Amino acid sequence: MGLYKIAAILGYSVLFAAIIGLVRFKQTPKAYRPFFYLVWLGLVNHTASLVFVHYFHSNSINGNIFVLLESLLFLYLFKNWGLFKSKPITFFVLSVSLIVVWIVDNLILHSLLSANAGFRIINAFLLVFLAIEQMTHLITNARKKPLFDPVFIICTGILIYFSYKAFIEVFFLMETNASLSLITNIYAILVYINCFVNLLYAWAALWIPRKNQSLF
Amino acid sequence: MDTQEKSIFILVVIAASVLGIVLLYFIVTIIRQQRKSKQLHLDKMQAEIRTLERERKRFASDLHDDLGPLLSAIRFKINSIDPSSPEDEQLIADVSQHIDDSLTRIREIAFNLMPGTLLRKGLVATVEEIISKTENHFPFIIKFSANENQLVDQEKSVHLYRIILEILHNTIKHAHATELTLSVYINETTVRFQSQDNGVGFDPEVVKNNAHGLGLKNLQSRVEIMGGEICIESEPGKGVHCSFEIPL
Ligand SMILES: Nc1ncnc2c1ncn2[C@@H]1O[C@H](COP(=O)(O)OP(=O)(O)OP(=O)(O)O)[C@@H](O)[C@H]1O
Ligand SMILES: [Mg+2]
Description:
The complex is a heterodimer. By secondary structure, chain A is an all-alpha fold. Chain A has one domain (3-206). In chain A, 76% of the residues lie in helices and 1% in strands. In chain A, helix 1 runs parallel beside helix 8 and helix 3 (33-56) runs antiparallel to helix 4. The longest helix of chain A is centred in the C-terminal third of the chain and has 28 residues, at 180-207. The mean pLDDT of chain A is 92. By secondary structure, chain B is of the alpha+beta class. Chains A and B meet through helix 6, helix 7, helix 8 and strand 1 of A and helix 1, helix 6, helix 7 and strand 4 of B. Strand 1 of chain A pairs antiparallel with strand 4 of chain B, so a sheet runs across the interface. The structure holds adenosine-5'-triphosphate and magnesium ion. Chain B: Residues 35-62 form a coiled coil. Chain B: It is found in: Cell membrane; Cytoplasm.
């Protein structure tokens, strides 16, 4: 089986989390809504990518739009988890800067039609830092066992996926004349990691508490 | 890929693996630290609660065993005075009534601080006593079912008693309920507890974010100290359900 087919199939691993989200959406606290939106958006984006690649041989347009929505939703999720509680302005500043960077990268410096690394790199680093921040908060505040704590699991997923993503994007920024087969081989690693992280998200979705339950 | 690109690819894979190992170590460290910090927190809570309960017990026994007999002696002496006029007789009767009231109050306060029955007759008897006292004052029915096949150690029974008391107080204070069901089952290995009222309930998300009360927090801490996990469920209009299980 070709790599493209494998990627197409493994990308759908997000389906598990999406379906669990569909079933549990109503029972779970509002704070977790951005997570479900993210999962569904991921599903839509993967499908869109397959369609765009089939017809236009490039998924850059939907990819570029997806990364912006994704980063804003993650930011909102962190806000709901209380990461910016002590300085609420941080959330606002970060969202606005992300949008500005995205506009500069995708509309002014480059075009929506090319896969633009600038925003992706900044976004990946930002999400990794925020995930680390959130995880260190958990050390002192969490009462649940980490492996069953949705916040911990989702942060683990973010950490794993986006640190590889940052690494790969930076690598291609340096290595500008890589051959197509090298690029594909390196992206293949990300495909497997993405699949693993999608399964982590499904696991997290299972453990999101019901909204009528409470821990103090 | 030519040979040069192959070696680049291998380098990338190695770098990725190194990154993976570092991440794994980071995650494991977080898990370990979280476990440690939770244990530390619980130990601290336990020490605090122990001190609190010890002080309560001391107050209760000081009141009940020292002040009580003293007042009784005073009453006895006053009653033995020979009144010389009807006014004096009335005065003595008044004073001895006051002393009686004080004695009753002291017994009540001592009981609230640390019920003697709890240490002598165990949890179920004490809760039954509390319930019979409460039922006269408040317009809701308490259905209490229990079996106590096994005596719980003193510290745990104090915890359990305080938990039940807090649930009772919350139901009185917030619930506007007409019925409260409590059940405690104690066997060789576990204590199983459940409570359900049919009152107004609350929205956990709202209460969690802006509650000033300590009741539910303490309740959770006490259960965690005993090695259990508490589940408090509520929705507006659906009452409050609380359950936990503790290993013995
Ligand atoms: N049985 C109940 N029915 C309805 N609401 C409840 C019930 N128990 C608790 N609550 C709600 O949960 C909140 C927190 O309860 P908690 O026991 O922690 O604090 P409190 O009772 O207000 O104060 P404290 O217990 O410290 O005296 C209450 O303010 C109340 O709104
Ligand atoms: Mg209370």
